[in-house]
Amino acid sequence: MEESESDPQQDSYALHCYGFCEKINVVFVFNNIWFFYLLFLGILLCLPSLAYAVFIRCCYPAQLPSVKWHIVIFIINCSLWFVLPVIILAGLCRLPISHSFYVIALPFVFVLVIFTVLDMFLSPEGKYFLNCRRVYDTSVYLEMVRVALPSIRVNVKSLYREPMEKNLKLNRPGRKMIVTAHRYFPIDSYSDETSLPRLDQEGFNQVTTFHIKKIVEPGDDFSHKQFTAFKTKFIGSCQRNRGGQFLEDTVEMDIPGLEERVVTVSSSGASLPWWARRKVFYVLSTLSASILLREGQFYSQSLKS
User: Fold this and answer.
1) To which H or E segment does residue 245 belong?
2) By Cβ atoms counted within 10 A, which residue in 2, 3, 9, 150 is the most buried?
3) What residues contact 231, with CB distance under 8 A and at least 6 apart?
4) Calpha distance 168→165 (Å, rounded)
5) pLDDT digits (tens, 9 = 90+) for 83-113
6) What is the pTM of this model?
7) CA–CA separation, 140 and 122 (whole Å)
8) How remote is the C-alpha of 117 from its chain's centroid?
9) Helix, strand, coil percent values for the chain (each to nearest 5)
């Protein structure tokens, strides 16, 4: 018979864990663990979250809309890091699996993980990193904004019945089809009112974040009347030429090729900061610590404002 010797370090670690569990009333602690969690949550809301919101409200009011999202992500991150160690502690202390703590803790962790995954793709930062394809040179992107042309597209949706032969109409009803036609409104001139930073003022910043809202609208009553007449004529031509039943029309006003959220670097060969890197965002989100990246973004934007 072979005998194996146990690792002294593992035995010492197990004894320490066992001694810790012996010193506390395990059942009492886990019967009241959710009271401790609510206390922990109240401390997070009253101290760091409230102080953060007041600081942003007083010093950087333009950044106030992002505070709610940051606080929610902060609470989710901290909650996950509270519950996971407690579950591990429950397993080390051999808490019975039938205890009510597991009934609440395991589904709660699952919900927190779902929220973390949704944050990776549906949050403003998640959407940016998901859609970001490249990093532009600052001067190149500013030139793209200056020369970008507006576009106005009218879509007309109509209902048509599939034509059928007379001898088949009695056997089965005709199928219905929904067809959408589109036409672009001709623009002969436009006025660009884009507000852009000057390179000589922003030149000291190696990295610049752009958040652009694209708005295309008629400049005067004459342009508005011309567009209305164009849309009415197009809808009428669709009905006359194709004989369908008009359903609805939509207007898409855009500036094609111009991204709304972009990170640019100066032409001096600067590299992206850690908070603007996609891999860092996904790693921190996986570790439920993405609040660190968001605070890095906010701190950088605050310095530039």
Assistant:
1) strand 245-254
2) 150
3) 154, 185, 249, 251
4) 5
5) 999 998 888 888 888 888 999 999 999 999 9
6) 0.59
7) 29
8) 11
9) 60, 15, 30
